Amino acid sequence: MTAPAQRAELQEIRGPSALGGGVRRFFDLLWLSAVTEFKLGYHGTALGFVWSFVRPLLIFGILLVVFTQVFRLGSEVENYPAMLLLNILLFEFFAQATQQASTSVVVNESMVRKMQFPRLVIPLSVVLTNAMHTGLSLIVVFVFLIAYGVDPVWTWLLLPVILTALGVLTTACAMLLSAIYVRVRDIGILWAVLSTMLFYAAPILYPIEIVHGVFRDLILLNPLTPLFLQTREWIIDPNAEGAIEATSAHPWLLIIPLLIAASVCVAGPLIFNRMAPRVAEEL
Amino acid sequence: MLTVPATETRELAIDVRGVEKTFRIPTQRVETLKERATQLFSRAEYRQLRALRGIDFEVASGEFFGIVGRNGSGKSTLLKLLASIYRADAGSIRIAGRVAPCIELGVGFNVELSARENVALNGVMMGLTPREARSRFDEVIEFAELGEFTEMKLKNYSSGMLVRLGFSLMTHVDAEVLLIDEVLAVGDASFQRKCFDAFARLHAEGRTIVLVTHDMSAVERHCDRALLLEGGRIETIGEPDGVARRYLELNFGRAPAAAPGADSVSHDARVVDAGVADSNGEPASGFAQGEEITLEIVVEALRRLSEPVFGFQIVNADGLLIFAPEPIRLDGRQALAPGERARIRARIGNPLAEGHYYVHCAVGRGSEGQDPLAFRKNAADFVVYGTRGFGGVVALECSAETTVEPAEGSE
Ligand SMILES: Nc1ncnc2c1ncn2[C@@H]1O[C@H](COP(=O)(O)OP(=O)(O)O)[C@@H](O)[C@H]1O
Ligand SMILES: [Mg+2]
Predict the structure, then answer these.
(1) Which residue has the higher pLDDT, B173 or B40?
(2) Any idea what DSSP says for residue B20?
(3) Cα–Cα distance between B307 and B300 in angstroms, integer?
(4) A185 in contact with chain B, both atoms CB, cutoff 8 A
């Protein structure tokens, strides 16, 4: 049946941690739980994984009607529907992944309390699952972009840079939120409000050039703003202002959001790492 | 190569030195947001609960090791430290080889997933590759007898099914060290037997098994050595029967064998001897719940006794009368001649709750034994241990199921 026990060396056990337990096992677990979660997300639904792109498309449809028909904003912006669709998709990834990650350690309580495994797998697999959904949708979005008449340019090749930056920021937020949520559940509600704020304070629905004065400065302080500026310049409209052009008058408007992003990227792993060894006993 | 000292020939599977574990329990509950906001910045108040102190022990490779102790004595905490689920505050824990834990109900199951997905995930957590985990699935399911339920979400499983799946999985991951916490309290009798067969097989393969249990008969029967925890410290460690005896003493007070039974003075008859034995006729002092108890009483007639009646009472540690049988008469005889001895053997089914019991014996006369001739208090005593039931004086057969009804007014 099973192989006879082998003799092994005594090895010091140091308890649970964020990583720990071997690189191979970490990635096996991460992949397995992300795929399982991906399948589970559509379990029992009629459309299955089609929802990955139908959902952002529906949100996009609503916003498109509101902003072209009600506010008459879209008609003045080059390729507005294309910009809106891509922006919505990227923001949905950030919002969904961080929101789900925040509760993830608590939701998987029974696993954490009874099994030894690198704790970081939990929030990371949430991010990975959402990345899978987003990846699928991106294919659809690019088909739409071409059909809509957006000219393919070489800067499309820079999309991975944007996706990587967004992925890193999302992952860091996921770590930070899931660690804090174990002790302070209020962070869940707080984050829902905060991410709505980040949504409106970034050039997602509107182009940056229509905002002036203090509000423009505030929007430029949002760490998500440079990502969306760059997305527009590289993918949708080469003549639009990129992150550097938009802040050329005040370079600190670029430096501050980058600093905020950098501190989140440092704080996330640090705080998660501190929480990981004790989380099983605090749940 | 260093030469190994003679005393070191026994290879260790687990080596625990000076381990301490303290839990911090918040003393004040935060209710309002304002309190919480101020608490975020002040140091919260904690009560320290020292769950384990100065824990030192070692388990040899291939040993079957029992951990016993009262509720709250720290058994599960110790097991979770060994399983790397908790981190020790001080001391060192060293383990040789891979560890498979089975803690509380099942292992680290996600109840939203099916058995198939859970076996894959948990198999990898216990150290298998994803491919191995998938290929063991059929064996795991077969052992757990869950063939019809492989695609069902675990939230629809009964607790017995969860334990079966968890236990089955842990025995199929090739771990060198198996840590098991009270699984046997939940499964039914046939699965428990299966568990012990599996233990025997794993033991024979040379795997190390650490079992937390309340079942002293299991400890005596299966363990090579055992450890008794009391209040977070090691109270006894060593031979299983000694540890089991000490556990029973701690739980049920001193054995009254040391306190001789009170005899009524009588010139008619004398209770010579009384004792309890198991179903094989071996003298025994402890019985698992449901295990038949044989009570043997020897009575000597000091003068001619016509139509004597024998009786006994079983009382619990609080002195409550639990049971007295109908009067027992001699089979096929009318009387006892002086000096003759009658041996009464009573077989008692055992639905008793866990606890210490005493037997009073009596000899009487008359249709109902109304005229007492001789009486002996605390003529024998025994202990019943088991995990069935949560309180009371008897352990009734009980199975429960739950349903939820929708709130009134809702559709
Ligand atoms: N996560 C925890 N947080 C706080 N206290 C705990 C925690 N786990 C266990 N304890 C406490 O530690 C003590 C030992 O518990 P446990 O190891 O579960 O005992 P046993 O398994 O022997 O019944 C108990 O007093 C229990 O309340
Ligand atoms: Mg316990």
Answers:
(1) B173
(2) E
(3) 14
(4) no
Nearest CA of chain A to the CA of B160: how many Å? Answer: 17
Does the pLDDT value for residue B369 go beyond 70? no
Domain B12-27+46-252 superfamily per CATH: P-loop containing nucleotide triphosphate hydrolases (3.40.50.300)
B77 lines ligand 1 (CB under 6 A): yes
How many residues in total does chain B contain?
411
Pick the CATH number of B264-385 from 3.40.50.800, 3.60.20.10, 3.40.50.2000, 2.70.50.60: 2.70.50.60
Q: Are A227 and A166 in contact (CB under 8 A)?
A: yes
pLDDT, residue B257, reads: 41
Least distant ligand from the CA of B78: 1
Q: How far is B187 from chain A (nearest CA, A)?
A: 18
Is the pLDDT score of A19 beyond 90? no
Does the distance separating the beta carbons of B23 and A281 come in below 8 Å? yes
Question: Average per-residue pLDDT in chain B?
Answer: 84
Closest CA to B289 of B133, B371, B360, B395: B395
In the sheet with A10-13, reading across from the earlier edge strand, the strands are A10-13, B90-96, B12-26, B46-60
Determine whether the shortest distance from the Cβ of B75 to ligand 1 is under 6 A. Answer: yes
First to last CA, chain B: 77
For residue B208, what are the β-bridge partners?
B177
Q: What is the pLDDT of residue B259?
A: 39
Burial class (CB within 10 angstroms; exposed 0-12, middle 13-18, buried 19+) of A179 = buried
pTM of the model: 0.75
Q: Is the pLDDT of residue A249 over 90?
A: no
Give the separation between CA B110 and CA B123, rounded to whole angstroms: 13
ipTM of the assembly?
0.84
The 10s digit of each residue's pLDDT in A87-144 is 999 999 999 999 999 999 998 988 898 888 999 999 999 999 999 989 988 988 898 8
DSSP assigned state of A150: P
Q: Where are the domains of chain B?
A: 12-27+46-252, 264-385
Query: For the segment B200-210, what is each residue's pLDDT rounded down to a tens digit?
Result: 999 999 999 99
Long-range pairs of B247-254 with CB within 8 A, sequence gap ≥ 24 = B247/B68, B247/B69, B247/B216, B248/B216, B248/B286, B248/B356, B248/B383, B248/B385, B250/B70, B251/B70, B252/B317, B252/B355, B252/B356, B252/B383, B253/B317, B253/B356
